UniProtKB/TrEMBL annotation:
TPR repeat segments: 20-53
Claim: NADP is one of the keywords in the record: no
Xref: InterPro entries: TPR-like_helical_dom_sf (IPR011990), TPR_rpt (IPR019734)
Organism expressing this protein natively: Leptospira ilyithenensis
Signal sequence region: 1-19
Keywords: Signal, TPR repeat
Protein name: Tetratricopeptide repeat protein
Length: 229
């Protein structure tokens, strides 16, 4: 009788792990078939019994990211980052994996994504395209891109006579003051200066996913707002 009780106890302890493995396997099969609702169902099933399961947290984040790339943001971008953080906490190797995972491609240029991956704040600045507002069907009307060599390019869309859409580009330099603040200076010409006026440095406040640039009437963010265009 004692041997039977011991055997039953061992089987009971083995069941949750076996159940999680089966749910994860079914989730991956559904993900490969692009049956995203089923994949979500199976990964969530695992997390009900094993909330820290790295595999389920990571792949559920990937599933949500794929839906986000299709402009189906039913679960929220913040939820993706929470899942990735849980996955990394349980299995640190996922921190490097997420940087090359195609399922997470849509998030690659987001501040929070790079932060979760452990990228330094000053480096994140150069990995993100910083977009101005998107007032209509043309998408963001201007944007900044920063390079690690201390230079930047500012581009903006303009309308020529007759209504044709054109694009102007301006180059410049930037220099850090603190992790949350730096300065930019345009080269020969600037969209903010009149002809012949000497270029000046402009202070930039750098917070999570947002740039506030002196003399600009709007802020810049890490999102192009492409799904609402």
């Amino acid at each position: 009788m004692t041997r039977i009780i011991i055997l039953f106890t061992l089987i009971s302890f083995a069941l949750p792990a076996q159940t999680s493995t089966n749910s994860n396997k079914k989730g991956i099969e559904a993900l490969y078939k692009k049956d995203y609702p089923k994949a979500i169902e199976y990964f969530q099933e695992t997390l009900k019994s094993s909330p820290t399961d790295a595999f389920a947290n990571y792949n559920l984040a990937c599933t949500y990211s794929i839906l986000l790339s299709q402009c189906e943001d039913a679960y929220g971008e913040d939820e993706i980052y929470k899942l990735l953080q849980k996955a990394i906490k349980s299995k640190p190797a996922y921190k490097s994996k997420l940087l090359s995972d195609q399922d997470l491609e849509i998030l690659r240029g987001r501040y929070r994504f790079n932060e979760v991956a452990g990228i330094a704040k000053k480096v994140i600045l150069t990995k993100v395209i910083w977009y101005g507002p998107s007032p209509g069907a043309y998408g963001p009307m201007d944007q900044f891109t920063f390079s690690e060599d201390g230079t930047f390019v500012y581009t903006r869309k303009t309308f020529e006579d007759g209504g044709a859409l054109a694009q102007e580009s301006y180059n410049g330099y930037y220099s850090w003051e603190t992790d949350s603040q730096f300065q930019i200076r345009f080269k020969e010409k600037s969209p903010l200066s009149e002809a012949g006026q000497r270029q000046k440095s402009r202070r930039v406040k750098y917070s999570e996913g947002t740039l506030e640039i002196q003399d600009f009437e709007h802020t810049f963010s890490d999102s192009s707002d492409r799904c609402s265009a």
